[in-house]
Specification:
The complex is a heterodimer.
Chain A (H helix, E strand, L loop, with lengths): L2 H10 L4 H19 L3 H10 L2 H32 L13 E5 L9 H6 L3 E5 L2 E6 L4 H24 L1 E8 L10 E9 L7 E8 L5 E4 L6 E2 L2 E18 L2 E8 L10 E5 L5 E7 L7 H4 L3 E8 L2 E9 L3 E4 L2 E4 L3 E11 L2 H25 L3 E8 L2 E8 L3 H15 L8
Antiparallel strand pairs in A: 1-19, 2-3, 3-18, 4-17, 5-6, 6-7, 8-9, 9-10, 9-16, 9-17, 11-12, 12-13, 13-14, 15-16, 18-19
Chain B lengths: L1 H4 L1 H17 L3 H24 L7 H23 L7 H4 L5 H23 L9 H17 L1 H6 L9 H16 L7 H22 L10 H8 L6 H22 L12 H18 L1 H18 L11 E3 L6 E5 L12 E7 L2 E9 L5 E8 L7 E4 L2 E4 L5 E3 L11 E3 L2 E4 L2 E5 H17 L6
Parallel strand pairs in B: 1-3
Antiparallel strand pairs in B: 2-11, 3-4, 4-5, 5-9, 6-7, 7-8, 10-11
Classes of the chains: A alpha+beta, B alpha+beta.
């Protein structure tokens, strides 16, 4: 391997890369926090528009992947050595290595180690003893999780596109002829969510698709991310100076009850302020029994106020407001983001890694002893992923047995 | 009373110098530190006298922030290096006389300047001559006298390298946090709170997670803990303690020396026991630093300063929806103090205050800012303080939006009265408190 490749490998697999990059971003965050009330959003925006920062962030998944490969190779190499496959260089594979004289009689020690709970394997000129469960799977999952997490962040930062659109019953989904047939909100308490939302869509080529709250469904490469609910009542309005009246669907983002939205009558000084009346029974949006409270403003002054159920009407003072029918509305973000599945996969892997690591590290960490005879003498190696002192004690006892007099080289 | 104010700082100084002189170069360190302290006191007093305003405090606060960040960096480095074969004591050689002198004098200058700030009058200006000279003398004498107890400090207890840095920074933090304008713990807590708000919001947005109307109320209650008023404090405490805990952990996790080559069990055990004993002794410095940081956080949370904080006076609106407060009635709105009022209408309530700024303008603001929980403001000298994050807002900037400034509410002066639109006041209060109490974008 050339000198350059060796250096590149050492840098790529260095555990210092991730902390250094994260420390730099932390410093940037601190710097931004001095001048912005939303430093995280500002940092994301700055990173998104800066190639150097993106390249720096990309070092984290690259380093993670490099370490994953290097650590897997080390693990396999150690396993081969442990199985008695000759020819591997033990440098860096074990925590302790001791050279013993050639005549050290280790072949008989297997039984004693077996009595101490080690699973012993022996062959011609080698003896290996191991106990416990290796932490390598946890490490593998962790490194894979970190790699996926930062790849996801990078993909999300650079490639996310969001368009906010209104999804309306009876209308087609944006950029398609897939028709929204119905929007149903139900009170169905689950593990985390209180309600379920079902957007039933008749697909252009036949068949039906359903989009819910979570996980978000995908439509033509875009996730449907429901943000707010609302209604679009057919608004019929007439006033003393508007005898011809007005009729149009008014799209109102007024859920949950109490939230206000305004609607301007085009070409007139009239403006409505609507909100959904709370009601005492089930959720009005879910039940469909919706009453709208409204105020009618002419310029800045209020000229009429009242409430009307959807399907009903009200009038007074020359003003008449009728809401003969309505459609349900979901204000939806159509999001294109390749990072979302990567980040969720990463979260799952990291949790899985933790679930492996904690019990194994606490209850049965891997401890290994390997004794190999070669041309120059006998070498003894030891490593432990936990319970180091007890394991070291047993290893040292073994060495005392093999070489009872003072000596040995560190 | 003046002398009592600086006792905690001088105590810290009295502990710090013997440790430094024992760990660095003895008497020379103490002399350099004493000189640095006097220079720090004199320099800061000159700044207070001739520059005035916030300028003498800002650089000091910046330096405190930087050294705290340095401590963070050092602690992560210590943790990263914990797996190295040699022990920390072996790896860290004593610094040369020049480096030791620089470290001692920089610490002295900073300690002197921080301690003098504790005596700085709230309404500006320099510290009077007698307390100023007394402080300089006391600091110098303490530093020089420290060489005596330093001789009795066991060598094995004298911290070296990163643990020494932890001790020095922690002592300086105690000095800084006792002065409102230099305190960095409260701003840290506020930044943590903001970060958690922003992070949760961004996480929900990025992972396309639905907003709160769709969540079970009990689940949302747990998520809501992240927006509670204590999350900033606990998060701030975590960041405050972590560097020192990292250092302690790095010492604790230091690998035992390899004894595999020793063939006598007793000799192996003796060597290991000696190493473990040394390692335990090295933990004393970071643990003491932990105590100091606790003191600093306590001073920050419970400052000794008393604030002008009148009880809000109930006001009502005219039929036209206007709140009219006479300039000279039961209270004088133009006396330079903040005057708090509260207004209620149909279950909606807002708290606000009116005050005359140094520029001679009557301003009306909410008793809340756009960032923190609405715990309100008090007045101390020429600044108001946000009770939640303990940020001092100079009176000159009250009435201007941004940061932790109280949120301005439009008002007009008509004749002898200040007039505020009641609906605007309620709407401004509700939109502000909705964001700060429930999380940005999460409470829609």
């Amino acid at each position: 391997m050339s000198r350059f490749a060796s250096i590149a490998k050492r840098v790529a697999t260095s555990p210092a890369v991730t902390p250094c990059v994260l420390a730099l971003f932390l410093l940037l965050y601190v710097g931004i926090a001095f001048g912005s009330n939303e430093p995280l959003t500002a940092l994301m925006a700055i990173t998104r528009g800066n190639v150097a920062l993106l390249a720096l962030l990309a070092l984290v998944p690259l380093s993670g992947a490099a370490r994953l490969v290097a650590e897997t190779a080390t693990f396999l190499k150690r396993r081969r050595m442990f199985s008695g496959v000759a020819g591997s260089d033990p440098a860096g594979l074990f925590e302790e290595a001791v050279a013993l004289p050639e005549q050290a009689p280790f072949e008989g020690e297997g039984e004693r180690l077996g009595g101490q709970g080690y699973r012993v394997r022996a062959g011609s000129g080698w003896l290996s003893a191991g106990r416990g469960v290796t932490l390598f799977p946890a490490r593998f999952l962790y490194l894979l999780g970190v790699t996926l997490l930062f790849s996801g962040l990078l993909a999300s930062l650079t490639g996310r596109a969001t368009h906010r659109q209104v999804v309306l019953e009876g209308e087609a989904l944006p950029v398609s002829r897939d028709l929204v047939q119905r929007i149903v909100l139900k009170e169905e308490p689950g593990l985390l969510l209180q309600r379920t939302l079902d957007i039933a869509v008749a697909v252009e080529g036949g068949g039906e698709r359903h989009f819910g709250l979570y996980p978000p469904g995908k439509h033509r490469g875009y996730y449907l991310y429901p943000r707010y609910l609302g209604v679009a009542p057919l608004l019929r309005f007439s006033a003393p100076d508007l005898p011809g009246g007005f009729e149009q669907y008014a799209v109102l983002s007024i859920y949950p009850p109490g939230k206000e939205d305004t609607f301007q009558i085009p070409g007139s000084p009239y403006r409505f302020i609507f909100q959904m009346a709370p009601g005492e029974g089930p959720d009005p949006y879910a039940s469909g029994r919706i009453t709208l409270q409204f105020r009618v403003l002419k310029g800045e002054s209020q000229v009429f106020a009242g409430s009307a159920p959807l399907g009903g009407e009200t009038s007074g003072g020359g003003y008449r407001v009728a809401l003969p029918e309505f459609r349900r509305v979901v204000v939806t973000d159509f999001v294109q983001d390749a990072g979302v599945p990567l980040i969720w996969s990463a979260v799952a892997l990291l949790l899985w890694s933790l679930c492996w690591f904690v019990p194994v590290r606490l209850l049965r960490p891997r401890q290994e002893i390997l004794v190999v005879r070669h041309a120059e003498g006998v070498s003894a190696f030891s490593r432990a992923e936990g319970g180091r002192r007890a394991h070291a004690g047993r290893f040292h006892d073994l060495l005392d047995q093999l070489q009872p007099v003072a000596g040995g080289e560190p | 009373m003046t002398a009592l104010k600086v006792i905690p700082q001088l105590l810290c100084w009295a502990v710090l110098v013997p440790v430094m002189s024992r760990s660095l170069t003895g008497m020379a360190t103490a002399v350099t530190a004493a000189a640095g302290f006097v220079v720090g006191v004199a320099g800061e007093n000159l700044l207070l006298a001739y520059v005035g305003g916030e300028l003498p405090f800002r650089p000091l606060r910046g330096v405190c922030g930087v050294i705290f960040l340095l401590l963070w960096g050092a602690s992560v480095w210590a943790l990263y290096r914990r797996g190295s074969k040699g022990s920390d004591a072996e790896a860290v050689s004593s610094p040369g006389p020049l480096a030791a002198g620089l470290a001692a004098s920089a610490t002295g200058v900073l300690a002197g300047a921080l301690t003098l700030c504790r005596l700085a009058p709230l309404d500006g200006g320099a510290v009077r001559l007698v307390p100023y000279l007394s402080l300089a003398c006391a600091g110098a004498v303490l530093a020089l006298a420290a060489t005596f107890p330093a001789r009795y400090l066991p060598e094995r207890l004298a911290p070296r390298g990163i643990p020494l840095l932890a001790l020095v920074v922690s002592a300086l933090m105690v000095m800084a946090c006792s002065v409102q304008r230099l305190d960095i713990f409260s701003p840290l807590s506020m930044e943590v709170m903001k970060f958690i708000h922003d992070f949760v919001h961004q996480f929900f947005e990025s992972m396309l997670i639905p907003d709160h109307p769709f969540f079970r109320s009990d689940v949302w209650g747990y998520i809501g803990l992240l927006f509670s008023d204590k999350v900033g404090l606990w998060g701030g405490l975590a960041l405050w303690y972590l560097p020192v805990l990292f250092i302690a952990l790095a010492l604790r996790l230091e690998r035992l020396p390899s004894v595999a080559h020793i063939r006598q069990g007793a000799a192996r055990r003796k060597l290991l026991a000696s190493f473990i004993h040394e390692r335990r002794l090295r933990l004393v410095a970071p643990l003491f630093a932990l105590v100091l940081l606790t003191g600093a956080a306590y001073q920050s949370r419970f400052p000794a300063t008393e604030y002008w904080d009148p009880k809000p006076v109930e006001v009502t609106a005219t039929p036209a929806g206007q709140i009219v407060i006479p300039k000279k009635g039961e209270m004088d709105l133009e006396d330079g103090k903040l005057h708090k009022f509260s207004y209620s209408q149909g279950g909606r309530q807002a708290r606000f205050f009116v005050m005359l700024t140094p520029a001679g303008q009557l301003v009306t603001t909410l008793d809340a800012c756009a960032i923190c929980q609405p715990e309100g403001y008090g007045q101390a000298g020429n600044a108001v303080i946000c009770y939640y994050c303990k940020t001092l807002i100079p009176l000159e900037t009250v009435g201007k939006p941004g940061g932790c400034n109280p949120v301005p509410v439009p008002c007009s002066v008509k004749g002898d009265a200040v007039v505020i639109d009641a609906m605007t006041l309620l709407n401004t209060w509700e939109s502000t408190v909705q964001v700060t109490a429930h999380g940005k974008g999460m409470g829609k």
